[in-house]
Amino acid sequence: MENKIDRKKVLTVLSLGAGVQSSTMALMTKTGELPKPDVGIFADTGYESKSCYLYLDFLKKVLPFPIHVVKFGNIKDDMLKARGTTNFVVAPFYTQETITGKKGMILRQCTNQYKIQPIKKKIRELCNVGFNKRFPKDKYVEQWIGISKDEIGRMKPARDPYILNRHPLIEMNMSRQDCVNWLNKNKFPLPEKSACICCPFHDDKYWDFMKNERPSEFADAVAFDKEIRTISRKKNIKNYTHRSCKPLDEVEFSKEDNQLDMFENACEGLCGV
């Protein structure tokens, strides 16, 4: 029988997206409702909303633990530079064949490249373990993920054996609305949704909000949407950021809150929270 190894926790990391849930979790360490982690880590894609960066600055000032910002590159620039090549950053754009009209969706790899891997690299750096070195079997890192009870389907174990994912909001039986209520009760500002400006997982309600309340960011998204139309190496495939497979500035966004929240299947708790 194989002997079990008693492992020692060497680091507690809060994975910070600067959205409602992860920000609530982080701010609970300020009020004493959660213990302080050793560090927070924010993975910057380079294409977050201005409000996200402003809220991150606020958190840096008030939280009782340091926040490390890590970055693989600028996802928008990287995508446009690599158009038509094998180095194309794979994002979940909606696709349509020009001949048959058949619609589809590209498999997502951007979260792994711009969120998960940079965070793992920083964790190893903080633990003094090289990225290609074997992590000691008798040590582990606890990583807090800001998933609430209404998103319990997004809970997943870490892919690496040296990382143990923990979900404090679920442990406290808190929903996203509970997080909003907690922020209001404690007089903390409410963060907006945390995601790339052009994220294909935005629902119509958010696109409509961006169009009316963040016109410069919407204009940026519209320009990017046009740029990606022929980003694929396949000449008979057109790419879009909206599920209708229409140019973003031609879409009539539904204000009904009846769309599937695509973040349920997105980004493994590292985007959108």
Report on the structure:
- With 273 residues, the protein is an alpha/beta fold.
- It is built from 8 helices and 8 strands; from the N terminus they run E-H-E-H-E-H-E-E-H-E-E-H-H-H-H-E.
- The chain has one domain (8-269): HUPs (Rossmann fold, 3-Layer(aba) Sandwich), CATH 3.40.50.620.
- Strand 2 (39-43), helix 2 and strand 3 (67-70) form a beta-alpha-beta unit.
- The N and C termini lie far apart (42 Å).
- Residues 260-266 have low confidence and may be disordered.
Structural topology:
Elements: E1 8-15, H1 20-31, E2 39-43, H2 50-62, E3 67-70, H3 75-81, E4 94-97, E5 103-105, H4 110-126, E6 139-144, E7 163-166, H5 168-171, H6 176-185, H7 204-213, H8 215-227, E8 237-240
Parallel strand pairs: 1-2, 1-6, 2-3, 6-7
Antiparallel strand pairs: 4-5, 4-8
Helix pairs in contact: 1-6, 7-8
What is the count of distinct domains? 1
Label the CATH architecture: 3-Layer(aba) Sandwich
CATH fold group = Rossmann fold
The fraction of residues in strands falls at: 5-15%
Rounded to the nearest angstrom, the radius of gyration is 20 Å
* Helical/strand content category: alpha/beta
Helix count, DSSP H or I runs of 4 or more residues: 8
Task: State the major sheet.
Answer: 5 strands, parallel
Distance between the termini: 42 Å
Order of helices and strands: EHEHEHEEHEEHHHHE
The pLDDT mean sits at 89
